[in-house]
Amino acid sequence: MVSKKTYKERIVIDPEIHFGKPCVAGTRIPVENVLELVQENIPFSEIVEKYYPDLEIEDVKACVRYATDLVCSEEIHVGKT
Question: What is the DSSP letter of 54?
Answer without folding.
Answer: T
